[in-house]
Write a structure and sequence with these properties.
Residues 1-26 form the signal peptide. This is Phospholipid-binding protein, PBP family. InterPro entries: PEBP, PEBP-like_sf, YbhB_YbcL/LppC-like. The structure is a single chain. With 187 residues, the protein is an alpha+beta fold. The protein is 16% helix and 29% strand. The protein is globular.
Amino acid sequence: MIHRISYLLGALLMLALCGDPSQCYSETKGGQTMNIEIRSTAFEEGAMIPKLYTCDGKDISPALSWSGVPAEAKSIVLIMDDPDAPRGTWVHWLLFDIPADTKSLAENVPRVPSLPDGARHGNNSWGSKKIGYGGPCPPSGTHRYFFKIYALDTKLDLKPGATVDQVQQAMKGHVIAEGQLMGKYKR
């Protein structure tokens, strides 16, 4: 009975930690997760995201660039989300199987299931705009938007339109480096 309780407590702790994806599926090198530096020409870390990239503007994706992807990486995943949404984390953009040698995404990435380089869009939380970027559009107040980059040691065996849960499940045990950029928007 004590072993069963210990097991259940451990499982509950693991589930609680999985609110932070890095706790669920990050790999480490030398005892710590390798870092990817991610930047945007549109805004600085922690700064306001310009209106152009929101539902109040043209709702196009900002240009992003990154460095620090390990040589052994086979693909990259991008997840943009808003943890401040009233009904829980809102996924604004999900792009996976980005080629590992990619160092940037241009502004206004097309909203198509698959890009010419093989990258695939997953579903976001927008009902009518399920594929591709859906910019910040908070109901009220200031929200934080996290652009998260994960370098994987594999490509994901998923089709365009996969959910963030499916992508995160497939990523487990394959993240070799990660980084994030946070911007804010207020309506």
